[in-house]
């Protein structure tokens, strides 16, 4: 089969000789194929160049990000180390508070006070280098374990201190309900123990303190409590009997007048009556008793001021 051919005539102007070229169809096809191949190769080269440029930019961004993360991890490492040291001091302080509060033995302190960290500080974690991975898996795991340990230690200390707080609150309530003041100003005439009764002249056990003072001097409650009795009661005359809780009760006898009534709640230092000489009494004075667990005890053992 005869190949087709194409003639190309180039005309420059009217006076010049025309030039004619004959191009075969095969040459045209080969030329198109070659041009397409060159275009495809150029496209691959451009794509490869763009890919390399993108990868380089990506690596550069990763390096910048790595530097920032490295600085952040270093800062976190320092902060966690400081927190560990603070927790160690808090742990020592907690143990001392427990001893002061009477919740543990002083001998426990010999194992406290070294000031060492509660856990290994995070500075032991391997920090990043030029490797694109910020932390090795082992370092990552150690970092997480240490943060968990810090949280666990903090919760333990918080729980212990809450227990101390609750205990001290209970102790504060107990102290507020423990007789600890002089009920009135004066001087002691008859103390707790065996004595000769000023009226009957017979020896007997006097389970109270008699405080001689001026008629009408105020009498105060020596602790918080509830009034059980506030009325005239035979030989003790006008009598106030207060239940303070925790096993404590107090009684105040021979009052001239009573300033509270049965069922009232009184606070330590509150005026409850006035010194008198009612009942079996020879002169103005206060008969003051302290009862603990049903037994009358020496009031002097409880006076703090």
Describe the overall structure.
The termini are far apart. Strands 3, 6, 7, 8, 9, 10, 11, 12, 13 and 14 form a 10-stranded antiparallel β-sheet that branches. The protein has a two-stranded antiparallel sheet with strand order 1-2. The protein is built from 2 helices and 14 strands. By secondary structure, it is an alpha+beta fold.
Category from helices, strands and their pairing: alpha+beta
- SS field, number of helical segments: 2
Termini separation: 136 Å
Mean pLDDT metric: 78
Q: Are there runs of 5+ residues with pLDDT below 50, and where? A: 108-136
This entry's quaternary arrangement is single chain
Q: Any idea what the radius of gyration is?
A: 50 Å
Main beta sheet, described? 10 strands, antiparallel
Number-wise, the strands total: 14
What general form does the structure show? rod-shaped
Please specify the SSE layout and strand pairing.
Blueprint: E1 5-10, E2 19-24, H1 25-100, H2 137-176, E3 187-190, E4 193-196, E5 203-206, E6 209-212, E7 218-220, E8 225-232, E9 238-245, E10 248-258, E11 265-266, E12 271-275, E13 285-292, E14 295-297
Antiparallel strand pairs: 1-2, 3-6, 4-5, 6-13, 7-12, 8-9, 8-11, 9-10, 10-12, 10-13, 13-14
Helix pairs in contact: 1-2
